[in-house]
């Protein structure tokens, strides 16, 4: 198109004008810095979120079965058998609840989130989380008194269910406010809480097939609630998504400020090219032609800055992830380096925003150039 040829010529000739060339260069570099910063930030956030999701898949069950309107699951064996047939390799019946744990010697106590252990335990033993044990002043071999949230009738009236256990193992500290703080044997949990079946069933298998297996189990057993690992951790995923959106919008302001520089650089270019615009108008160029020419100038500046920003941002993200350029102390963090993951949707979104802002920023000066009076513009040259 003739408009783009003229736009390239205007932009190339602008290098001879120091002020105009400087403003154009600043606009390009500003866009490049904004695009590169946004790409690096999104790649870092995607990498960290990928690590979090991988750990969630490894630590949490891919499917969770919970009762509806009851405390326990009645047909747990049938559900477990069906899940194994559908491909779940590990199915665990779980009994969980909240009880009171106390150190009677020091008269200290606190609520405990208890659940059945995945491995058999002696009936008088309990595994306790490190932070809980420290808070109660207990260690391995010490006794702890557990008070269940139910009572039994005696000739003297209702009496709470109380039993002393010996701490067999200290578990790693709970990383989640809902995490288990103590484990007992399955039969001991059923006796302590008075359940006649599991309160939930955890299933581990292929995360990719979790949703299809969920649909089949929900159809076979409508009296229970079937959740996937995504639904279990839905609040966390929503928070991660919101974090990414907020970061995208915030860092996009850098691109917005750089795009505003296009207004000044293009305005300077239009002032220099006013006589040329007048000549083009007298030769038959329409307002639309002039508008297209200067929009193309802004678009070329925007695309150049965006491409350079992509080169820097994507190159750094790839190199940092490939060669572990940002190491972290593994004894403090759960990863040894900062991961960077480049996602196509993020790259397309950043490029679209940068180009769109470039076009919007050049619209007003390009529109003003298209409305110049050709007679007045030519007289100025004279």
What does this 3D model show about the protein?
With 382 residues, this protein is an alpha+beta fold. It folds into 2 domains: 201 residues, no CATH class; 168 residues, no CATH class. It is built from 12 helices and 10 strands. A 6-stranded mixed barrel has the order 3-4-8-5-7-6. A 4-stranded antiparallel sheet has the order 2-9-1-10. A hairpin with a 2-residue loop joins strand 6 and strand 7. Helix 8 packs parallel to helix 11 and helix 9 packs across helix 12. It starts with a helix and ends with a helix. 32% of the residues are buried.
What keyword list fits this structure?
6-stranded mixed barrel, alpha+beta, 4-stranded antiparallel beta sheet, 56% helix, 12 helices, 382 residues, 2 domains, 10 strands
Radius of gyration: 33 Å
Number of helices: 12
Give the amount of beta strand, in percent: 15-25%
Structural class: alpha+beta
Residue-averaged pLDDT, rounded?
Answer: 88
Distance between the termini: 30 Å
Strand order across the biggest sheet?
3-4-8-5-7-6
SSE arrangement, N to C: HHEHEEEEHEEEHEHEHHHHHH
Biggest sheet details = 6 strands, mixed, barrel
Helix content: 55-70%
The domain tally reads: 2
Residue windows where pLDDT falls under 50 for at least 5 positions: none
Strand segment count = 10
Shape: elongated
